[in-house]
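Note to self: keep these together.
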Amino acid sequence: MAYSDKVRNIYMEQLNGIREAGIFKQERFIHSSQAADIEVEFPSGAALKKVINMCANNYLGLSSHPEVVKAAHEGLDTRGYGMSSVRFICGTQDIHRELERKVTEFLGTEDTILFPSCMDANAGVFEALLAEQDVVISDRLVHASIIDGIRLCKAMRDIFKHSDMKHLESKLQLHADKRFKMVITDGVFSMDGDTAKLDVMVALCEKYDALLLVDDSHASGFIGSTGRGTHEKYGVLGKIDIITTTFGKGLGGASGGCVSGRRELVEMCRQKARPYLFSNTIAPVVVSGVLRVLDILSASTERRDKLEKNTEFWRKGLTETGFILKEGDTPIIPVMLFNAKLSQDVSRALYDEGIYAIGFFFPVVPQGQARIRTQISAGHEIHHLEKALDAFTKVGKKFNILHKTEQEITEMYGT
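Structure:
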C-alpha cells in the first residue's frame, strides 16, 4: 500500500514513546579522527566539545596510527579506491591473498577467507556449512550477528546457559544423533567483558565429536600473551575449528572481517557463503592498512601490554570509587546502572564533564541490566584515565549511586 498518514502516524507514535521513556538514541558526530581525545558535536548543531573517548573499540589505539595511515595511502595509490566487483569475478588482488595468508599465520589456523565485515562472515558461515540434519548449540549471550547468521541456515537450533559447561555437555549428549554438532560462542562477550572457557569447550567438543566456532572480534590483536585471541589465552591454539573476527576493532578499526579455520570449512565458504559471493571485495585501502597492523603486532607486544596495564588501572579505580562492575579481565568494563533512563542521564552528565561514554539498555542488553560500557585503549594515557575517573566519581555522587547495591539503585530508579 502507499505510504499513508496511517503508516506515518503509527511509526511517529512509536518514536514518541521511545522519546518519552528517555531512551531515544541520538547519534554524536565526531569531527576528528578516532583517538583517546576527540571533538564531538552533540546534540546536532551544538558547538564542538573536546572529550575523552571511553567507549570505542579502538583497543590498541591503531585507528589513526601514522604507520597504518601511511600504509592505507600507499594501498590507495598502488591498488586504487575500490574493486567494483565480488571476489570470484574480478575482485581479488594479490594483497587480498596476502592478507588471508597473514591472518592465517597470526591466528594459527589452516586457511582464511575475507568478508566485508564480521557480520557478513557470521551471516555466511552457517548456511555454507550446515544443513537440516545438523544442530547449532550456542551460548545464550552470543552476539546478535551470530544469532542472525544462525537464522539463515536450516540446522536445528539450541542454546546453553551462559558459560555453563555442564549445561553445554548435556546439550551435546542430547544431540548425539545429529550429523554435525556445532558449538558456538563469543571469545570475549562484548556486553559483559568476560571470556569463554575455551579449554573446557575444546575438550567437550573433542569428547562428543562436535565442531567449535568462536567469534573473537573483541579479542583479536590483544587477548592472549601475544594478542592472538582467546584461543591463545586458554592454550588451545590450532584447536578451534572456525574463528570469525573483524578488522574493525583492535586490528585497525576500519572494516572487514574473516572466517579462519579448517581448510575444508574455509573452502566451503568460498564456494557457498552468500555475503562473500554477492558483496564487493574489501577495499584495497583497508587491506593495506590491516597488513601493516599485523606487522606492528607481530613485531612487539608493547601495545597489548600497555592496554593490559591501563585496564587494570581503570578497573581498580572504578571499584575503589564504589561502582558496581561486571567481573572480567578484558578492556571491556561495564559500569552497572540497571535503569535505562539512568544510563542515559549518567552518559549525558559524563559528557558535560568531558567524558564520552554511552549508555546501553534493552534490547541491546537484558531488561534491567542497563549500563555504561567503558572500553579501554592502548591510546589512553594515565592522565586520560585519571581525568575520566574524576568525572565518574563526580557524576556517581550526583546520582547517589556510589557504594550502593543493585537493590538500592533499583529502589531509587527502578528497572
